[in-house]
Specification:
The complex is a heterodimer. Chain A has one domain. Chain A is elongated. Helix content of chain A is 57%, strand content 0%. Chain A has eight helices and no strands. Chain B is an alpha/beta fold. Chain B has 13 helices and 17 strands. In chain B, the strands form three sheets. In chain B, strands 1, 2, 3, 6, 7, 8, 9 and 17 form an eight-stranded mixed β-sheet that branches. Chain B has a six-stranded antiparallel β-sheet with strand order 5-11-12-13-10-16, covered by helices on one side. In chain B, a hairpin with a 2-residue loop joins strand 7 and strand 8. In chain B, helix 1 runs parallel beside helix 13 and helix 5 packs across helix 13. Chains A and B meet through helix 6 and helix 8 of A and helix 2, helix 6, strand 5, helix 10 and helix 11 of B.
């Protein structure tokens, strides 16, 4: 599996966008590097099956790399339809790496730090909102 | 098999039911020798993912709520066994260890309504409980005091609650948006009762709204049985043996004489006891009792009448910015406008509308369709911190065809494999559809410009109820009103398996109250 092919796959699944702030592509977020490590390891067998299928659907790895965006999407959709379970497992893996990348979390308007220890600020409760409910009679039986 | 010294009471399971019973019984009858066997271990709070940057993916692996997912991921702290849930659209969720499923619960602790204890009498469906809400009320109060409850007095959907409350958990922008919608519809709503500190209480801190409660609370703001009931039980002399898997209840002459169990080194022991208590949740309890050949007849109630709380989601999209995953996930606001049975509706009994916090970015992205490509980015941009989920929680009525049953083969823990057979009833489907329509009405009234629906959420099987139900008739129930098995009088059940009916609210407060009551009943019998 060539690096160029894996980068092309990752950026087809995670193209990023150009809003403000922009979402980076999967490769720019470091996902392709993670995927290279994964498919080279023992846990990569299932994902390799999917990746080979995409290459086959495209006419080879180089052909997939050379294809335009629509051509790549068509090849990926073919494999998604053929083997939805394994394909979804591959997507899950790249989503995990992507949405845990600091640059992506920040682009989503979130923060890179985990929930603890600082927690989050949530605005206090305005009890006046309950006025109409408090005026109701007993509801329970 | 080594035979150990006899004890007065052996308890299986150190979760909510087992721990509450151990704490109460040891307090009321301090002369008893009580041993609790727990298949798992204490949870290590320093290992909880909320401090780590990979906390989102941890929730999809070793810290998932599903034992099957955790087993697939490997390396979980929960001592899980596989559950064949292929014949159930709702997948069981639980935790196996000291504290049980309170380790990864949301700590939303509503009580049942008084009418939930009398469904047969009032509405002609289900079965009446052997006692009333008001019989259980003192034990609800005891549990409230032990756990510490954040909430607000005066909810007209309930009788007045006497136990003190901390200020409610902040409902935030999402709660206020929902309140706007409920008020516009003229419907009931109320801030959730939560077993979550909103002020420092003893050695437990106030919640800082970190959010991922379902992966454990490392700051101990969220109550769980390991930090609430076990310190009391251990101080009172209860012996807790971890990594010990009960294999079967030993019955002779119609009485339980103890338990056979396997310890962490694989050695087997016989623990003689005057009373045996089983509190392993709605699946584990049935599994152990069925494996012990108790009530195993084809028509027996044991393992049957499994009830979940079927859940659907309506998710409203708002232009305004909301809180997203900030705040305790399950403790925001709820509506009981449609909780009580009303003739003329297209279903029997009722539902809760529960507003929750949102998912973290990864979890929200993982459930979207399409999951990849430009459209996936666009959809997540639209939803993240702009969506408001409303859970429709249906009351599931008992049906003997829904059950947990032994399956072929033996699991690695030495017990038979287990499977869940469950079909969503027509009544539950109609409740969910009605509730989705009402949730959509509310969300539009609150300002949502679009509402997306999830007709039935599969990974919501937190509440495992009814498989060793209480009742007077041994043909249709497993235990009496004190949790005593009809077939074996000194064998006691003390968990959610006992529920004859389910109501439409989270069962944690009722499970704890039941276990405290059973502890009192047993203390009275053996003398103080």
């Amino acid at each position: 599996m060539t690096s160029a092919f894996l980068r092309a796959i990752v950026d087809t699944l995670l193209p990023g966008d150009h809003r403000t702030p922009p979402l980076p592509s999967g490769t720019a977020a470091g996902v392709a590097t993670e995927l290279e490590h994964l498919v080279a390891g023992l846990d990569g067998a299932l994902h390799n099956v999917v990746l080979h299928a995409v290459a086959t659907a495209a006419g080879g790895q180089e052909a997939f790399v050379r294809a335009d965006a629509l051509g790549r999407i068509a090849s990926v959709r073919t494999v998604e339809a053929e083997m939805p379970g394994p394909f979804r497992a591959l997507v899950a893996v790249v989503l995990q790496d992507y949405y845990e990348a600091d640059v992506v979390l920040l682009a989503m308007g979130w923060r890179a730090e985990p929930p603890q220890p600082q927690g989050h600020a949530v605005q206090p409760f305005d009890e006046a909102l309950l006025g109409p409910v408090r005026r109701r009679g007993r509801m329970w039986r | 098999m080594a035979k150990l010294d006899a004890v007065d009471v052996v308890v299986v399971g150190a979760g909510l039911g087992g721990s509450a019973l151990c704490a109460r019984l040891s307090e009321r009858a301090p002369h008893l020798r009580i041993v609790c066997l727990e298949r798992g271990d204490w949870v290590d709070r320093s290992a909880m993912p909320a401090y780590r940057r990979d906390w989102q993916s941890a929730a999809l692996g070793a810290w998932a709520t599903s034992p099957n997912v955790r087993l697939s991921a490997g390396g979980s702290r929960s001592a899980d066994y596989p559950i064949d849930d292929s014949a159930s659209p709702i997948k069981p969720l639980l935790w196996n260890g000291v504290g049980g499923s309170t380790i990864n619960w949301a700590a939303h602790v509503p009580r049942l309504h008084p009418s939930d204890f009398r469904t047969k009498t009032l509405d002609g469906v289900g079965d009446d409980w052997p006692f009333s809400y008001f019989d259980l009320e003192p034990y609800y109060d005891l549990n409230d005091t032990a756990m510490g409850i954040a909430g607000l007095a005066g909810d007209p959907a309930y009788p007045p609650k006497r136990s003190p409350r901390m200020p409610p958990v902040a409902i935030g922008r999402m709660g206020e948006a929902a309140a706007r919608g409920f008020n516009a519809m003229g419907w009931h709503w109320w801030p959730a009762d939560a077993a979550i500190n909103t002020v420092d209480r003893g050695d437990r801190h106030a919640c800082n709204n970190g959010g991922p409660c379902l992966m454990g609370c490392p700051i101990q703001a969220k109550a769980s049985a390991d930090i609430v009931y076990w310190p009391v039980a251990l101080r009172n002399g209860v012996e807790l043996r971890t990594h010990c898997v009960a294999q079967h209840v030993i019955v002779k002459g119609g009485r339980a004489i103890g338990l056979a169990y396997r310890d962490g080194n694989g050695a087997t022991h016989e623990q003689p006891a005057a009373f045996t208590v089983v509190a392993c949740n709605g699946i584990g309890t049935a599994r152990l009792l069925l494996a012990s050949n108790i009530g195993r007849g084809a028509d027996g109630a044991l393992g049957r009448h499994l009830m979940f709380h079927p859940i659907a989601y309506a998710r409203g999209m708002f232009t305004e910015e909301l809180d997203g995953p900030r705040g305790p996930v399950g403790a925001c606001v709820y509506s009981h406008e449609f909780y009580e049975h009303r003739p003329g509706r297209p279903f029997t009994r009722g539902l809760q509308l529960q507003v929750t916090r949102e998912n973290a970015p990864l979890h929200q992205a993982a459930r979207l369709e399409p999951a990849w490509g430009e459209d996936a980015h666009t959809r997540l941009r639209e939803e993240f911190r702009h969506s408001l989920p409303v859970m429709v929680v249906a009351e599931d009525l008992p049906d003997a065809r829904n059950r947990v049953a032994l399956a072929e083969g033996v699991a690695a823990d030495g017990l038979p494999n287990i499977r869940v057979e469950y079909t969503l009833s027509e009544n539950s489907r109609r409740i969910l559809d009605f509730g989705l329509d009402r949730a959509e009405d509310m969300l539009h009234a609150a300002g949502a410009y679009r509402v997306a629906r999830v007709p039935l959420a599969p990974l919501t099987g937190w509440h495992l109820l009814g498989t060793a139900r209480m009742g007077d008739d041994p043909a249709t129930s497993v235990t009496d009103g004190r949790g005593r098995c009809h077939a074996v009088a000194n064998l006691i059940v003390a968990d959610g398996s006992l529920f004859p009916t389910a109501g439409a609210v989270n069962p944690g407060a009722t499970i704890a109250a039941l276990a405290l009551k059973i502890g009192d009943d047993l203390a009275r019998e053996v003398g103080r």
